[in-house]
What does this fold into?
Amino acid sequence: MVSRLRLKERGGAGSGLFSCIAVALALTVGCHTPPRDAAAGLARLPWDSVLARAKGNTVVWRMWRGDPSVNAFVDRWVGPRLKERYGITLIAVEGQGPEIVNQLVVEREAGSSGSADLVWINGESFGQLRRENLLDGPWAGSLPNGRYVDSSSSIIARDFEQDPAGYESPWGRVQFTLIYDSARTPNPPRTVAALGEWILAHPGRFTHDQQFTGTTFLMTLLYALGGGVGQYQGGFDSLRYAKGSALVFQWLERHRTAFWRKGETYPSGVAELHRLFANREVDFSMSYNQNEALAKVRQGVLPATARPLLLEDGSIANTHFLGIPFNATHPAGALVVANFLLSPEAQLEKQRPDGWADGTVLARSRLPPEWAARFDWSSEDPRVLSPDSLAKYARPEVSPGYRERLSADWRARIRHAGIEK
Amino acid sequence: MTGRLPARTVLLAALMLSALAPLGLLLVASLGRGWFFPALFPPSVTLESWGDAFRGGRMAVALWTSLGLAVCTGLAGAAVGWPVGRALADLRGWPRHLGAAAAFLPVAVPPVALATGLQISALAVGVAGTPGGVFLSHLIPAAGYAALYFLGVFTLFDRRIEDEARTLGARPRTVLWRVTLPMMRREVGQAFLLGFLVSWAQVATTLVIGGGRVRTLPLEVFAYLQAGQDRYAATGALLLVIPALLMLGAVQFAVERAEATPL
Amino acid sequence: MTAASRRGLLAAFAVSLPVLVGVGYSTLASLGLTGPGAAGEGSARIARVLGEPVVWTGLAWSLWIAAASTALATAAAVVVAVLFRGGARSDRVARLFAVLPLPIPHLAAAVAALLLLGQSGLLARLLTSLDLLTGPGDMPALVYDRPGVGLILTLAWKEFAFLALVAFSVVATRGGRLEEVARTLGARPLAVFRRVTWPLLWRGLLPAVVAVFVFAANTYEATAVLAPSDPLALPLLTLERYTDADLVRRGDAFVLVLLGTAVSLLAVAAHEWTRGRWDRLEP
It folds into this structure.
């Protein structure tokens, strides 16, 4: 019957549409595109050529977008100036280390063009990207503003002990601090040992998060209990790790029943920890940004009496870098952006206490005199740590292997302690 | 009889409270600054996050992206679900079970599984990181829900009216437009709403297929939450609720008006 | 096979093809043949992941959350659908407020729950102002807690709206005449409910209940906001593996994704089997 045919058509139309979609989606054959040495090639050209090629580029920058101060710096200061001076349109897109690595792996399998031209990476993510040949380079050495970089600092010249080798360019540095409330804790502990005693004396008022910052706290324990960062430098040593981690877990076992919620559950990230701290569920928070207290008080996330605290056993510091993926579509633009971010002007703006307050990677001694003076700033604000004490207690990161193992072992032994393996 | 009333009234009050209290809480959270324990009310109020939303900031962009995607998904989902659901309703016996199970698949498989599984296909075809690709990824579960919904509807559907119209000489297209669709206004509206809401609330598929480039409102709310920006998260959450509520109301209104007009 | 069957099966195939492609990719990835963490381990990876106690406690916890919230939501939906089924103004108002949470995303509901039920949340602050608590530590833990109370309540609140919507339409279209018959035959209200209303409601609600259960077991956003870190819910564990520092372990996430999918499919199959039994019982 005619009507039945029409019904079939309609049923077929719906399924036809779907079949088309499905067939398109079923194209999973991945071609392997060999890495193009676009940025590396550009790095060998005179800078003016790079600028010329970068004009009109749209640079997609995958970076952490979790802080309004950072976003304000990138969107409202960097973006307009790039447009005005170099004709580059900057698009900042959310993405952190592991996501970036996964995305590039899948993009390479699919043979698709790059979705990002510039990526904010360091440490583990850099190591993984290098091992998988997902980064373009070397190019960092060709940046004109590179001459200002403080390459004598082990914290800047090395990324978690790895050699950037020109595959990534530094652009800021941060340091780990605790945060306490001067109204609740007028005399906070200043060493790991004192902190341990404080925790036992104030049960349920301390905890750490499960992500990067929390692992940094565990690494701080490793350095402090294991005899200093010197013990762990020079690559990953499983024997030293075993000895050091045993001390860390001993300490945790001794103190964890005095942690928040008896150490049975941990906040997933720093944001949750800040929330607990601000709402008086715990008396300490942490951050891998020495100026977190300043920024978060201004944003109304932390109470006005919040203060940063450097542990005398050492405050771990690291540098964040910029990389160019192997399949970037606008490597010339990426090079120009990376160079601009290294300029004294950008570094100074980034460092402003009422903005992001991110540490600079430039060396005063290498800057022209009129700039060098402007980088020295001191503040009476108790929420700001003096550059001297920051420098005094700074300790470099060690091989990413320590972090990886410590984090994995913490999950197995402490977080899931209730489950027998 | 009078003994029943207090229970109903209590329950009615409880329903109203439970529906509105969370919204009220989010509203206060979206305006309060430094609202910490043990304060019952925020010490100071700011319109900062709402201002950002209405001045074309990040949240405004995300809102429009979400709206566009959701409307398209609702329409396309209903358009695909109708014929599929209808065809499935005609099945009998074991093919029916197979058909129903297949229709359930897009609904049952977690969006995360769908998204990570289809990411490489989306990249290969070149739709990853584009609104079009995200739309397609929303369409899969939306069409599934719509198909299931129409399967239920057409199972109960009395075909005799259609058969009568055809015996009176009407062409199938006429039967569809003049008889079946008008009867199904409420159902079509519900199917559109289903697809709209499915797309409106999607996080995993947008994140994976969109690759961070397509920013929808739920993504921004989640990002704000992870960044500890509770005030912005609460504002975003309310911005998620209001258009969806309006859409619910609009569909109800349109359906009721249409039903008021005689066939 | 009739033309109708062919059409129907083609439609079913078309609708499920993208899903099958996606699941297929996940299967390949979990065998280490593709994707992040591909190391060609083959089935050894699947064996390793499925041998971890963390995975099973995570799955069990997620199933507990799903079961508890679905049961609560179903009970509430049935009660409300039966009590407020009339055309009176109070009935219509009740039905409106019952479905109001429908467009509210789970994420927003979870945030509201955190603000309300946290140890430093509004409820705790209220109790503190009444001098019933001295500080957040005194408040019972309803979020980030092992039993998952806050999460269960949040999911139940959301799912109640959806199940109520379905229940209202079932009651409106199906119930009337059969119930009238039962009543005229002299059955008491409770008996009418047990013998007529409830079976009708249950049959009409079952697909929605299964969909809700499956959703709750696999949902990420609300769980991320309210769940504890141990037992680690399956969706949280999955994401954690996908972003693990160790690149090879990222492939574990695909195995977990397939596990979650398998559970969903089991639920759907159970639903179809139940439906099959009912269809055979019907004349």
Chain B touches chain C through 81 residues (CB under 8 Å). The longest strand of chain B covers residues 32-33.
